Amino acid sequence: MAGVEITGVSTVYPNGVRAVDALDLRVVDGELFALLGPSGCGKTTLLRTIAGLEVPAAGTVTIGSRDVTRLPPGRRGVAMVFQDYALFPHMTVAENIAYPLRVRRAPKARQREAASEVADGLSLSGLLDRRPGQLSGGQQQRAALGRAVAAGADVLLLDEPLSNLDARLRLEARTFLKRLQHDLALTTVFVTHDQAEALALADRIAVMESGRIRQLGTPREVFQRPADTFVANFIGSTPMNLVEATARDGHVECAGARLPGPPGLVDGTPLVVGVRPEYLAPADDGITGVVSTVENLGVSSLVTLDCPDGTPISLTVPEQHEPALGRTLTVNAAPGRLLFYDAEDGGLLDG
Amino acid sequence: MRAAEDRDPAGLGTARAIGFVAPALLLVGLFLVFPALWTLYIGITDYQLTGPAAAEPSVVGLDNFATALDDPLFANSLWLTALFVLGSAVVGQNVLGFALAWLLRRVRPALRRTVEGFVLLAWILPGPVVAYLWFAVLSRDGGTLGLLLGRPETAWLVEYPMVSLIVFNIWRGTAFSLLLYTSALAAVPPSHLETARLAGAGGWQTVRDVVFPHIRGHVLTNTLLISLWTANDFTPFLLTAGGPNHESEVLPVLIYRQALESGQLGYASAMSLLLLFGNLVVALVYLRLLRRRA
What we know:
The complex is a heterodimer of chains A (351) and B (294).
Chain A: E1 4-12, E2 18-27, E3 32-36, H1 43-51, E4 58-63, E5 66-67, E6 78-81, H2 93-97, H3 99-103, H4 108-121, H5 137-150, E7 155-159, H6 167-184, E8 187-192, H7 195-201, E9 204-209, E10 212-217, H8 219-224, H9 229-234, E11 241-248, E12 251-254, E13 257-260, E14 270-275, E15 280-296, E16 300-306, E17 312-318, E18 328-333, E19 339-342, E20 348-349
Parallel strand pairs in A: 3-8, 3-9, 6-7, 7-8
Antiparallel strand pairs in A: 1-2, 1-4, 4-5, 9-10, 11-12, 11-14, 12-13, 14-19, 15-16, 15-18, 16-17, 19-20
Helix pairs in contact in A: 4-5
Chain B: H1 2-7, H2 14-42, H3 52-55, H4 63-70, H5 72-104, H6 109-124, H7 127-138, H8 144-149, H9 156-159, H10 161-186, H11 190-199, H12 203-231, H13 235-240, H14 251-261, H15 265-293
Helix pairs in contact in B: 4-15, 5-10, 5-12, 6-10, 10-12, 11-12, 12-15, 14-15
Keywords (chain B): Cell membrane, Membrane, Transmembrane, Transmembrane helix, Transport
Transmembrane segments (chain B): 20-44, 78-103, 115-135, 265-287
InterPro entries (chain B): MetI-like, MetI-like_sf
């Protein structure tokens, strides 16, 4: 059992790309931690740097109390499950799971015993003598997890653990993974580009862009109070409304409406107002617009309003409360749900 | 309409299609099929290069084969050929080619291409040229190897003829294995290699558990090809001519000497058929092993 501490780590590829840039991060013992970001943001490189598959150009990686920066992957006490699972096709499930023990030259009986022990916890008991080719996607994933667990590592690393599964199986596997991690209480870092996956699974999330962490927090913090417009845009299955606004008399003017604003802003300061479609609801006063599209999301619908100045505003309404197309609708945000961002650097303003 | 297109996708018609392949078939027939059948025929005659049997060879049936199998020179050659194939191809080129491919995987591309270039050079130079080069290296009179080892008077090709041939053939043929294994290694998924690294597997364990199972088919194909090429290789004649005293007389050299030095064309043909038969057996064994994999 051990936490992971990353201090000032930069990882540079031979072609000069700085995939991870002077990054600090601390993963607490027993935590399920997500590295989230668009492709090319450096999240996989950071994971591989923790694993020791990439050597950082600067900085240190500490696991538990050991500085592992210069240790080879096999001696860091980490196990990793790759996106393609990397099961050895010529070995049975049992041999695959017991592979870390085989490398350490454990006796055959001990290997077999460990494999069946691990397989029990992963509902793979009946499949121990199968080859990976004879398993379904979900079973392959569990076999790969089994091999990582059998390694007896302090830290488990998962690269896009759910992306190779089809949509329905993905939900099942997500629940399974969360329960497994909870039962093992094993420090786990996983990489994903899917914000819904990160929100659902992780105890804490680091949102990354261009090799740096944009925001670090619990799923709730990241969802409710994105630290900047990049995170605000990236998190949420329906994109957040980000509307250009101007400060005036302690209020903000946007989309032809006047909303209560943050205190202490000079009149005329440009800023960006952010509000999630889920936090907007019809009200007596607020932003007014004409209903231009209604998209059915199942239990709710996504309604887009065209405001007088042309700004589109989205909100979700419960099913059977969809407004008719062309109707004029006034909406306002639930208390405390309006977020204000600096128009220049996109940072969140207090207020 | 569809069916007609399937049968005649080029839209040429049978006559014109035959016209197009006829030149190729003619050349194959003239230079491959006819000589093979001709060898088969003279293998059962007492055909000679000169003398009465050259003008009017008579059929002697399987006598040539019986003589060959009873001939100590043939047995000696068979043993030397097996040694040559095992030492220089199955073990030498195979292991060295794989080791080079494995080690060159991670080095800088410039260095890798330089090494590959040198190895390839040994492969593409014509046999007589490299034979001459090795003659210079191994010569008793100021040969490079003798000077390097401080033994200038050693006649390597006379004192160690088979060792010289085996080393020579490894040097000459490793390029093919290197190229084949380089491309085979590129097909091993990186995540499998990294999984082994994370489990703490060393170099040998990684090769045994991850790399070899992936490239088993390549290993078999490579071993088959280089075995056959080595068994039929005639370059040893250019280096030692089979000597001294038949000590390096592999089968192709024996056959050549029987045919053109002793003039026994019929007998030599019979022996080359036995060599062909041996090659076939080896090829069948390999194919069986390959099929068991699938």
